[in-house]
Amino acid sequence: MSAVEYRVRLAGSEAAFGCAADDTLLRAGQRAGLGFPYECNVGSCGTCRFELVEGDVQVQWADAPGLTENDRKRKRYLGCQTRPLADCTIKLRLGQRYAPPHRPQRLQAVLERSRPLTHDMREFRFVLDAPHSFEPGQYALAYLPGVTGARAYSMSNTPADGKTWEFVVRRTPEGAGTRALFDDLTVGQSIAIDGPYGMAWLRREAPRDILCLAGGSGLAPMLSIARGAMAEPQLAGRKLHFLYGGRTPADVCGHDLLQELPGWGERLSYHPAISPLPGGSSEGWTGDVGYLHEVALERFAARLPEFEIYFAGPTAMAMAVQRMLVDAKVPSEQVHFDQFY
């Protein structure tokens, strides 16, 4: 981290924080424990937008889709894409829901193990140079060799002693980040990791049973939620239903990982589904066939508002699940997800 640090003041309040010259305003605000609003953390959603009142800043991604031309004309910037060049004053409304349960840190991590889960998904285990905790369901930013910018990946394990962070990642065609992870990174190699981030963590205080909906590499945070819930004495009375959707039978996974957990078959159940793709083969498949939001609705229907619900997966799936839960009249405070793009 840079030794040069600038002071960032929030207009109209006493709040202020230090931001290293090589850090972003959003992440520095989070490191200070402030509820600096954000969602995707990579420039796409616009949630971390702020207005520059005084000072000078540097934009890392000038064409980030999270800003409109009108935003740029009004001197609005994205906190996740902006670094300070001097002391600054910004206009921003903090939100308590964004305050970090664990202040993110920039750490070094060594790849200890990589193993396949499906034909295009792998689990990567990293050992940190210093222990740091996270909440089940959170994610981290990985800085990979030869890749410009950070890539967001969710942890799939529980924090335990804080030294080991595991990630389940799906290979993306033409994706520089997954190419670096799958093809270039070798066991024993070190990368920079920044985290934890995200608001869709396990709510221990919630009195309801849990429903997890996962598609693709959305398996990672939902697996972390399930592992956390099954290990928490505070949640010993809760049941957890885990629905996983894949395109074909070859894409379905997670059963063996969940089966290892205490409560399997009693408090914990797993329901896989494959998509009803035209021309797709479901020969020998005995699970559900349907899109995940449809399967959830068919299985639980009027019971959906009784659950604490977590979901993660491809954008189309996440949007469909959101719409379904709204139509099912599930209270928004019982629904938890992180918006990725």
Keywords:
alpha/beta; 341 residues; Elongation Factor Tu (Ef-tu), domain 3; 3 domains; six-stranded parallel beta sheet; Rossmann fold; globular; Ubiquitin-like (UB roll)
Series of secondary-structure elements, N-terminal to C-terminal: EEHEEHEEEEEEEEHEEHEHEEHEHE
- Give the overall form: globular
CATH topology of the largest domain, which one?
Rossmann fold
Total domain count: 3
CATH homologous superfamily classification of the largest domain: Nucleotide-binding domain of ferredoxin-NADP reductase (FNR) module
* Name of the CATH architecture of the largest domain: 3-Layer(aba) Sandwich
Strand order of the largest sheet: 11-10-13-8-9-12
List segments where confidence is low: pLDDT < 50 over at least 5 consecutive residues: none
How many beta strands in the DSSP annotation?
Answer: 19
The chain-level structural class is alpha/beta
- The percentage helix is 10-25%
Counting H and I runs of at least 4 residues, what is the number of helices?
A: 7
Span between N and C termini?
27 Å
pLDDT averaged residue by residue? 94
Query: In what range is the share of β-strand residues?
Result: 25-35%
- The radius of gyration computed from the alpha-carbon positions, rounded to a whole number of angstroms, is 21 Å
Tell me about the largest β-sheet: 6 strands, antiparallel
Query: So what's the CATH class of the largest domain?
Result: Alpha Beta
